[in-house]
């Protein structure tokens, strides 16, 4: 896959400007079924429509995907209620070219597994009919829809061994974990063997992926979850499973040898003591996925929010550096090449999807309520195209 990526990258680096070149669809359509929101709020803002504007290719490197399955992530709940809207709207329309409230109607859903329907003129890596998967970044229209448009560099060939329903459960959580562990945390196949890794919040979507990823790379994994998820954790390869409900989590973890790497999916008060569990002056790293970046921008505006966030991460990084450990924040990053690597791990049997429940396309509000209830074991998946 790397060779194909390189060829495609070379084609894209040929300097073609983003002409609004696109091939007219053979069956020109103007509308499609979709779940949208017209305002931010609770679950009652979700609305099914058959007249959502059909996506079109605006740039030569884009593709249109027919969505077979999608899945929900906590970011969908956050976006439904308006969390991060300031930052996302700035990304959607950086030059303020459009009038206000341009994000509505907004389609949620970040994960997609489906089939390429149409390709922009500079897309050489994919062709119509290819089975693909992707995680669409949150500033774009989402995947709870019959079709979605994506940049070619966000898309990857779906693992051959997975159905669309299974594949749809992995891209967003997989790329979030990959960003935290590999790109921010610096762990990879060649340096992870024998390292002691602690995953806080191990039974959710990101956690179940992270446990399998570092285990595939040869780490010793300690997973923190509630007791009823311990069998799942063992099945995924965790060496030690700690029940956070059976006494003080901090005290339980202090009885174990120190760690080389901690991934925190929980945040909150955990951060106050978790870094003391790292080996000092050894390059040990704590990476948290719980950051105040979007909430700062919502509260303080773009400039002040970015400033406050920069000061916070800078001061925390320095404080912990003086104590001999690395403190980092990580975010989801869309990436077709990273999905290529994840697909290889999936096809080789080292990572498997963990699905909590599958809902039909008509049951999207029910799926949101399920996710809102918390304590999921893996992912909530939406079957957009029923095989029946």
UniProtKB/TrEMBL annotation:
Disordered, as annotated region: 1-26
| InterPro entries registered for this protein in UniProt | ADH-like_N, ER, GroES-like_sf, NAD(P)-bd_dom_sf, Quin_OxRdtase/zeta-crystal_CS, RTN4IP1, YIM1/Zinc_Alcohol_DH_Fams
Q: State whether keyword Protein biosynthesis applies.
A: no
Q: Which GO terms describe its molecular function?
A: nucleotide binding; oxidoreductase activity; zinc ion binding
Question: What highest taxon heads this organism's lineage?
Answer: Eukaryota
User: Matching Gene3D superfamilies, A to Z?
Assistant: Medium-chain alcohol dehydrogenases, catalytic domain, NAD(P)-binding Rossmann-like Domain
Give the Low complexity compositional bias ranges: 1-13
Enoyl reductase (ER) domain sequence ranges? 41-382
Q: Name one Pfam family in it.
A: ADH_N
Q: Name one GO cellular component term.
A: mitochondrial matrix
The protein's UniProt keywords, in alphabetical order, are: Acetylation, Membrane, Mitochondrion, Mitochondrion outer membrane, NADP, Neurogenesis, Nucleotide-binding, Oxidoreductase, Transit peptide, Ubiquinone biosynthesis
Which reaction is recorded as catalysed by this protein?
Answer: a 3-demethylubiquinone + NADPH + 2 H(+) = a 3-demethylubiquinol + NADP(+); 3-demethylubiquinone-10 + NADPH + 2 H(+) = 3-demethylubiquinol-10 + NADP(+); a 3-demethylubiquinone + NADH + 2 H(+) = a 3-demethylubiquinol + NAD(+); 3-demethylubiquinone-10 + NADH + 2 H(+) = 3-demethylubiquinol-10 + NAD(+)
Membership in a protein family: Belongs to the zinc-containing alcohol dehydrogenase family. Quinone oxidoreductase subfamily.
Q: What is this protein called?
A: NAD(P)H oxidoreductase RTN4IP1, mitochondrial
Q: Which gene does this sequence derive from?
A: Rtn4ip1
